[in-house]
Amino acid sequence: NLSPCRFYLHPELSNDLVGTHPPGAHSLVAVSVGYFLEDFVDMLCNQKLHQSWELLFHHSVVIVCFGIAVLLHQYVGFALVALLVEINSIFLHLRQILLMANLVHTTCYRLNSAVNLGTYVLFRMATLAWMARWLFLNRQSVPPAAYAVGTLGMAVMAPMNVILFFRLLRSDFCK
C-alpha cells in the first residue's frame, strides 16, 4: 500500500513517479490489474449492463492505465498513488452490504456514510486532483502517448467521481 510513509521511506517517489517505485510496487499494481479484470468479468456475467456500465467503464480505464504501467515497468509510482483511491472502496462496499442487509436505519450505516463521504473526498477526489496536477506539471517529461492516456484517464475519472459523490450525498444525507 502507498501511504505518506511510503514517500518518507522512498523520497525518490516524490520526484519521479514514472521510472521509480519501491520494492513490491510492480507486483501490487499487477495484482490490482488482475483484481480489476476479475471484477470486470464478474460484473459482465452477473449484472445487467444498465446497472454496471459505469463500473465497467471505470474498470476498463484502470485496466488500461495499470496494464501499461505493468507492461512497461513505467508509471508504477503513479499507479501506486492511484491505488489510494481504493481505500474509499472499503466503505463503498460496506455501504452496499448494509443496504443489501436492509440496515439503512442503523447507527452503523450512518457512521459508515460519514466515513465513506470523508474518505471519498480525501482518497478519491483529493488524490485524483493531485494526480491531475502532477500530470499537468510534469507534461514535458511524460511521453505524448503516456500523457494522452493519463489525461484521458483523469478526464474520465474526475467527472465520474464527482457524479458519484453527489449521488452518495443525496442518497445518504439529503433524504
TrEMBL record:
Its main location: membrane. The chain crosses the membrane at residues 53-72, 78-94, 114-133, 145-169. It is found in: Membrane. It is a multi-pass membrane protein. InterPro entries: TLC-dom, TLCD. The keyword Membrane applies. GO terms for biological process: membrane assembly; phospholipid homeostasis; plasma membrane organization; regulation of membrane lipid distribution. One of its GO terms (cellular component) is plasma membrane. Keywords: Membrane, Transmembrane, Transmembrane helix. It holds the Pfam family TRAM_LAG1_CLN8. This is TLCD2 protein.
